Amino acid sequence: MVIERHSHRKFWAAIVVLAILAITFSVSAAYAVAELKGTQNSLLSVQSELEAAQTQLASTGGELETTRSYLEDTLAELNETKAQLLNLQVNYQRLTRGYGYVLRDPSYEEMKDFLARDRTSEREYQEGVYVCVDFAQDVKANAARERLRCAYVVIEYRGGTGHSIIAFDTTDRGLVFIEPQFDWEVEPEVGRRYYQCVNPPPGYHMVQPSYDDTIRRVIVIW
C-alpha cells in the first residue's frame, strides 16, 4: 500500500510538471508568434519604404536625365552664341580697322577733365585768322584723339550772323553745350540772346555784343 501511494504521488507530480511545461511552451510560443508578427510588420514597413525610396530614386533619375539634357542644350546654345560673338568681334574689328579709334560719350566729369587738359581756350581770338569756328574745330579734333565724341554746334542768329560752339552727350547729364573759347557751359535757347545763355563761373561775365545775337536755330553736328 505504501508503494502504491508513492506511485500515485509521482504520477500526479509528473502530470503537474507536464502541465507547467505545456503552459510555459504555450506562453513562449504565443510570445514568439507575436514577435514574429511584429518582425513581419516591420519588414513589410521597411519593404514599403524601400519601394517608395526606389520610386523616388527612379523619379530623381528621370529629373537628372532631363536636367542633363537641358544642360547639354544650353551648352550648345552658349557655344553657338560664343561663335556669333566672335564673328561680331571680327566684323567689328574689320569695320573699325584703319580708323585708329572708336569714339565714345564721356561722363560729365570726364568731359570736365578733358576740357581742363585741353589748351584750346588759352589761344587768342584773332578776327579773320583764328575765330569761333577754329576754336570749335580744334576742341572737337582734340577730343577725338582721346576717343571722346564731341559735336560741332552751329548757332544761327536772328541778325543774320552766327556762332560755333561744341557739345558732349554725357552719360550722366545728357547733352552739355560748351563755349570753347572759355570752356564755359552754355544753355542755348531759341529766341533768347546767346550771351545770356552762357553760364560763366563766379567772378566772370559774358559781354553783351553790339549786334543782335538772338538765337534763331541750333544745329548739332556729330
Query: What number is the mean pLDDT?
Result: 86
Number of strands: 6
Which CATH C-level class of the largest domain is it? Alpha Beta
Low-confidence segments, given as residue ranges, are none
What's the CATH topology name of the largest domain? Beta Polymerase, domain 2
What overall geometry do the principal axes of the alpha carbons give? rod-shaped
Describe this structure in words.
This protein is α+β, with helices and mostly antiparallel strands. The chain folds into two domains: 1-100; 108-221, Beta Polymerase, domain 2, CATH 3.30.460. Helices cover 55% and strands 15% of the residues. It contains four helices and six strands. The chain has helices at residues 2-96, 108-117, 132-145, 194-197, and strands at 151-157, 162-170, 174-179, 184-186, 198-199, 215-221. The chain has a six-stranded antiparallel sheet. A hairpin with a 3-residue loop joins strand 2 and strand 3. It is rod-shaped, with a radius of gyration of 50 Å. The relative contact order is 0.08. The mean pLDDT is 86.
Write the layout of secondary structure elements.
Layout: H1 2-96, H2 108-117, H3 132-145, E1 151-157, E2 162-170, E3 174-179, E4 184-186, H4 194-197, E5 198-199, E6 215-221
Tell me briefly what this model is.
With 222 residues, the protein is an alpha+beta fold.
Which keywords apply here?
222 residues, Beta Polymerase, domain 2, alpha+beta
